[in-house]
Specification:
The protein is of the alpha+beta class and 243 residues long. The protein has a single domain (2-238), classed as q2cbj1_9rhob like domain (Jelly Rolls, Sandwich), CATH 2.60.120.620. The protein is 30% helix and 33% strand. A hairpin with a 2-residue loop joins β12 and β13 (214-224).
Length: 243
C-alpha cells in the first residue's frame, strides 16, 4: 500500500511541478484568482467522491440549511489528512506564499507568512488554531452556497484553493462565483466553471489593486450558484487551521 501511495504522490508532484507557476502567480496578483487545468486525475476524483461516506475520515459534518449557508452539505477532514491532500496543501502553499507576502508589502500590512506550510501550521497552533479546515462539499439539484469568506480565526492565509471532482457534464448550474467589492464602485462578479480535476486558486479575503496613489484593498467573497440538475462535489483546501 505504501508503494502505491508513493507512486500516487510522485505522479501528483510531477503534475504540479510542470505547471507554469510564474503565470499562475501573475494571475493571482492581477485578478485575485487563477485556474489551473488537470491537477487531479479522473480516478483520484472518483476516489475522493467515494470516500465521502467514510465517516472515520471526517471530524464534522455541516448541513448548510441549518446555518443558512445555502443548500447542501460539507464535511471537514480530520488529521492526519489523506497523503494526496497533504501533498497538495504543502506543495501549493510553498508556491504561493511569496505572492501572499508581496500582497502584504503592497498594502503596507505588517504581516509576513512563513514559506513552508509546516511553519504556517505551527503559527496557527501557537494561537490555539489546531483543527484542519480541509473540506469536501456535496450539492444536488437546487443546492447552492451563499457568498462568504473562510477565515476561521485570528490567523489566516490570504489564499485558498478548490479542486473540482465532477465533470461539467455531470450537472448544470453550480458555477463558482467570485465577487469583488471595489471601493466607491459597484461590485463585480466573476463566474467560473472549471472541469473535472481542475484547481482554482483564489483570495480568501482581499487582494491588492494598484491605483493612482499606490495599492488599495479590494474585498472578495466566493460562493456557488444554484444547481439546476445533477450532483456536484468539490474539495476545498484552506491553508490555515481553525479554533
Amino acid at each position: 500500500m505504501s508503494s502505491i501511495n508513493e507512486m500516487m504522490i510522485q505522479s501528483l508532484n510531477e503534475r504540479l511541478e510542470e505547471k507554469d507557476w510564474k503565470t499562475i502567480s501573475g494571475e493571482l496578483h492581477n485578478k485575485g484568482f487563477a485556474q489551473v487545468k488537470n491537477v487531479l486525475l479522473k480516478e483520484e476524483c472518483k476516489q475522493l467522491i467515494e470516500n465521502y461516506s467514510l465517516a472515520s475520515a471526517y471530524r464534522k459534518t455541516i448541513t448548510m440549511e441549518r446555518y443558512r449557508f445555502g443548500i447542501g452539505e460539507y464535511k471537514y477532514f480530520q488529521y492526519p489528512l489523506p497523503p494526496l491532500i497533504t501533498h497538495i496543501r504543502e506543495s501549493v502553499y510553498a508556491k504561493i506564499a511569496p505572492v501572499a507576502n508581496a500582497w502584504m508589502a503592497e498594502l503596507n500590512i505588517n504581516q509576513h507568512f512563513p514559506l513552508s506550510h509546516e511553519e504556517m501550521r505551527k503559527r496557527c497552533a501557537d494561537h490555539g488554531q489546531t483543527k484542519p479546515t480541509v473540506l469536501i462539499l456535496k450539492y444536488g439539484a437546487g443546492g447552492f452556497n451563499t457568498l462568504h469568506q473562510d477565515l476561521y480565526g485570528e490567523i489566516y492565509f490570504p489564499m485558498q484553493l478548490v479542486l473540482f471532482l465532477n465533470s461539467t457534464e455531470d450537472y448544470t448550474g453550480g458555477e463558482f462565483v467570485l465577487t469583488e467589492q471595489i471601493p466607491r464602485a459597484q461590485s463585480k462578479a466573476n463566474v467560473l466553471r472549471p472541469d473535472l480535476g481542475d484547481m482554482l486558486l483564489f483570495t480568501t479575503n482581499f487582494r491588492p489593486v494598484k491605483g493612482t496613489k499606490g495599492y488599495y484593498r479590494v474585498n472578495m467573497k466566493h460562493g456557488i450558484s444554484p444547481l439546476h440538475s445533477g450532483e456536484r462535489h468539490s474539495l476545498g483546501i484552506i491553508f490555515h487551521d481553525a479554533y
